[in-house]
Write a structure and sequence with these properties.
alpha+beta; four-stranded antiparallel beta sheet; globular; 137 residues; Alpha-Beta Plaits; single chain
């Protein structure tokens, strides 16, 4: 079993897609090991996305991620990181495969409904950013 981290982003939460996305996660065979609705501050978002600090989209990304509530998730399944990234689809919803979450619920490259860890090291950092180990068992 592998764990990964996921976020249902402010655009999807405000559009009322949280339930549909959670249903798709469970239907895809993931177990929910942690879940919380949070409102990131700009500082929280900047810390979480610090790896992107020098990228041109950093300011708009952190402003967007702190614009409304998000749902943070700890997901577990065999090969969870790769499977979650496949279920999410390409970063740009217009380029995402049919049937993926970003294709169905995203509206743009930044407002793309979901986030997911891209590697075991990233998942460990991201899970630890939002969940204490005692919460995940």
């Amino acid at each position: 079993m592998e764990r990964t981290f996921a976020i249902i982003k402010p655009d999807a939460v405000s559009a009322g897609h949280t339930g549909a996305i959670l249903q798709r996660i469970e239907e895809a065979g993931f177990s929910l090991r942690g879940m919380r609705l949070v409102r990131l501050t700009k500082t929280d978002a900047e810390g979480f996305y610090a790896v992107h600090r020098e990228r041109p989209f950093f300011g708009s990304l952190t402003t967007f991620m702190s614009s409304g509530p998000v749902v943070v998730l700890a997901l577990e399944a065999p090969d969870a990181i790769a499977r979650w990234r496949t279920l999410m689809g390409a970063t740009d919803p217009a380029k995402a495969d049919d049937g993926t979450l970003r294709r169905e619920f995203g509206t743009g490259i930044e407002h793309n409904a979901t986030h997911g860890s891209d590697a075991p090291e990233t998942a460990a950092f991201e899970l630890g950013y939002f969940f204490r180990s005692v919460e995940l068992g």
